[in-house]
Design brief:
Distance between the termini: 29 Å
Order of helices and strands: EHEHEHHEHEHEEHEEEHHHH
Helix content: 25-40%
Number of helices: 11
Strand order of the largest sheet: 1-3-2-4-5-10-9-8-6-7
Radius of gyration: 20 Å
Length: 338
């Protein structure tokens, strides 16, 4: 079971101290290990905010089994937002409440990159403060995509490397380490990727990270490092729904047609069937010959959406089920030491 604990518009009128008292009281009443408090720091672009919450809520709900997962939403206030985006996050808890809260686990999403150097991103200072807080106050924290890159840069000075083009699609990965997080997962698994950068595996290993899954075509996928809290890093996106890559590809084509990017986006790897590939290839040829935004109406959204499948869902549920069980075990040991 999953319970969302984001601030409603009405709750937002409460004083900060009153909200913190309510949170603390609730947690004292429900401190048993089978009740897990998770914070989700959602830094995704405005158009993806609600979908991201839906994806993580569904994934955590499916992975929870007999546990109760209470989800509190946050965002970094420096992430650039339109009025529409600010309205969407107005119901989230204030990031300042995080510093005095008690969470068992934390998930930090990526954000759309705006600077070549992560340390130049407007939210860098807040993000590093989150990482430092998470190490002291959670049993485990998941860092996704850009947040994973920011995490290793801040913790160990490991810089990501830019790719020639976007690494985009569904890639086969292999499990390369036995770990509680990969227990019962298949030796070969599918995982969506969507990123412009990669991490050198040799740098991770030199700094004591443990690689869990990797792809011959996409590089390192998931890896961990045990500090005071267990940090879990995903370059891929186990939370994605079946159509997420499809909608992202359509968005990127729209950006090309509006001349917001200079190159036509790569088709997602290992994702579409032959009929969809043929239709999208024909659209690409028309767009390159006659670049105008109206062509986006010819994108075969309905046809493609009816054909894509979520080949990574069972693996994603397994990873998150193991993560929640890890937190529950750590919580049991703290609440009931031998």
């Amino acid at each position: 079971m999953i319970i969302q604990r984001a601030q409603s518009a009405a709750a937002g009128t409460l004083g900060r101290a009153q909200r913190l008292r309510q949170t603390a009281t609730t947690r004292l009443l429900d401190s048993k290990p089978t009740c897990i408090d998770i914070g989700l720091i959602n830094n995704m672009p405005d158009a993806a905010l609600d979908a991201t919450v839906r994806q993580f809520r569904a994934l955590l709900g499916a992975a929870a089994d007999d546990m109760v997962v209470r989800l509190t939403l946050f965002t970094l206030p420096e992430v650039p937002r339109t009025d529409f985006g600010r309205q969407l996050v107005s119901g989230y808890a204030d990031i300042s409440d995080l510093w005095e809260s008690h969470l068992d686990g934390l998930i930090v999403t990526g954000a759309e990159p705006r600077a070549a150097d992560l340390e130049d991103e407007p939210y860098w200072e807040s993000l590093t403060r989150v990482l430092e807080w998470a190490e002291r106050h959670t049993y485990s924290t998941i860092l996704s995509c850009l947040a994973a890159h920011a995490g290793i840069l801040h913790l160990d000075g490991i810089a990501r490397r830019p790719l020639g083009d976007k690494r985009f699609g569904v890639y086969e990965c292999v499990r390369v380490s036995d770990h509680p997080l990969t227990a019962a997962t298949p030796s070969r698994l599918q995982m969506p990727q969507s990123r412009w950068n990669e991490i050198p595996e040799e740098a991770l290993l030199a700094c004591g990270y443990r690689v869990l899954t990797r792809s011959d075509d996409a590089g390192v996928d998931a890896f961990v490092k045990q500090r005071k809290s267990l940090f879990v890093f995903f370059q891929g996106h186990p939370e994605y729904e079946a159509v997420t890559l499809l909608l992202e590809y359509r968005r990127d084509i729209g950006r090309f047609l509006r001349r917001e990017r200079e190159t036509y986006p790569p088709m997602p790897h290992g994702y579409f069937d032959e009929e969809t590939v043929a239709a999208l290839t024909a659209l690409r040829e028309r767009a390159l010959a006659d670049r105008r935004e109206e062509l986006l109406a010819e994108f075969p959204t309905a046809m493609a959406a009816g054909k894509v499948t979520n080949t990574w869902r069972s693996t994603a549920e397994g990873l998150y089920r193991n993560w929640l069980r890890y937190i529950a075990t750590e919580k049991t040991q703290k609440l009931h030491p031998r």
